[in-house]
Specification:
This protein has about 210 residues and is of the alpha/beta class. The protein has one domain: Glucose-6-phosphate isomerase like protein, domain 1 (Rossmann fold, 3-Layer(aba) Sandwich), CATH 3.40.50. Helix content is about 55%, strand content about 10%. It has a five-stranded parallel beta sheet, sandwiched between helices. Helix 3 runs parallel beside helix 10 and helix 7 runs parallel beside helix 8. The longest helix has 23 residues. The model has no long low-confidence stretch (mean pLDDT about 95).
Length: about 210
Amino acid sequence: MSYQNIEELIDRKPQLAVCKPDIVQFCDALIECYQNNGKVIVCGNGGSCSDAGHIVGELMKSFRKKRALTEQLKERLSSFGGMELASKLQTPLRAIDLTAMTALNTAIANDIDPNCVYAQQVIGLADPGDVFIGISTSGKSKSVHFAAIAAKAMGSILIGFTGMDGAEMRKSGIYDVLIRIPESITFRIQEEHISVYHAVCADTESTLFPE
């Protein structure tokens, strides 16, 4: 399996070499998930909320490579009058941003508990073999931790993104892969999180959509 983009990332940012084994494991988990028709579920708060949406954006449409629909799907779309759709739509890698469900999240926060906004969705959406990605620069986000527990109970593979300390994410021991960026300042952790998931999304796409 090729990890060209991960290798390039480490060449550009040697400080991330300590994270390389975990980054590769993350990439392998994504590829296996999609090969088995699974999906990715992502959540985070604040800047990490934006990262959750960013990851989903790279997965649900073409990122660096073209992802034409299958000929069978093109024919089905065309048979219902969707010729233009058949020429424009792209093959997605299924992913859900839990932070984007505004009405549902506010209902859960109001009726159950604000810290359960993601966990409640995970119980409803996660299947065995799915990949759950929890992002918390401090490692202390209770809503992300609760969601991770729910995802583990549902049989999902757990990927964590955090900083050097990792706090509760590290101490919980429930993550299959925990990417701990060797930084302690929030914005610097976030900058490296972006670099990591971009490289992994690119290598996942290259593997699943070979030319």
